[in-house]
Write a structure and sequence with these properties.
By secondary structure, the chain is mostly beta strands. It has a single domain (2-7, 19-184), classed as Porin (Beta Barrel). The chain is built from one helix and ten strands, in the order H-E-E-E-E-E-E-E-E-E-E. The strands form two sheets. An eight-stranded antiparallel barrel has the order 1-2-3-6-7-8-9-10.
């Protein structure tokens, strides 16, 4: 990403939007715990401009963590899971809105909110489930060339998940940090 910033050169702050549609990709980390997966976080998204500040934000993400076992039976013989901060696997589709705020020069801060549908798996314990998280986040975007921007951001996932193997309904709480690039179509 540093090479992209150096090679692209500065972009003009008054440069018009190159397109009303964009594709993006990002890489980062997600911290989970209990039955919320964590690990490397890969993201691909599609943006469609709704107004000067608001964009429809949808896409797919994958979280890949370790596979060691973390479930056990407690003193009451209840089946519990505490998978740790970077374990499990998740594949998620999401849709929401991203709002850009006035920035300075080529930089524009943004906030986003989205609803996701997530398949979750902890292969070390043979536990799988389905979760519905709300994503709340924000970041900053810098236009580095005509039709190319780099981003950095974070998001909080809060929701509920339903799991097999006596786990049942469990909260989903995760935090992700990522950096990436977005291209105008």
């Amino acid at each position: 990403m540093v090479a992209l910033l150096v090679c692209a050169g500065p972009a003009r702050a008054d440069e018009p939007v190159a397109s009303s549609q964009e594709l993006g990709a990002a890489l980062g980390v997600e911290a989970g715990g209990r039955t919320s997966p964590g690990g490397f976080h890969l993201l691909a998204d599609y943006l469609y401009q709704l107004s000067d500040q608001d964009w429809f934000d949808s896409g797919l993400s994958i979280t890949i963590g370790g596979g060691a076992a973390g479930c056990f039976r407690d003193r009451d013989d209840d089946f519990r899971c505490d998978e740790g901060i970077a374990r499990g696997f998740a594949a998620e589709g999401f849709a929401g809105v991203r709002r850009f705020f006035p920035g300075q020069g080529v930089f524009a801060p943004y906030a986003r909110a989205a609803l996701g549908a997530r398949l979750v798996s902890f292969r070390g314990d043979d536990v799988t489930g389905f979760a519905l998280p709300v994503q709340l986040g924000g970041g900053i975007r810098a236009r580095v060339a005509s039709g190319i921007a780099v981003i950095g951001g974070s998001e909080l996932r809060i929701g509920v998940g339903w799991f097999d193997r006596e786990v049942g309904t469990e909260p989903q709480i995760g935090f992700a940090v990522h950096a990436g690039v977005e291209f105008a179509l």
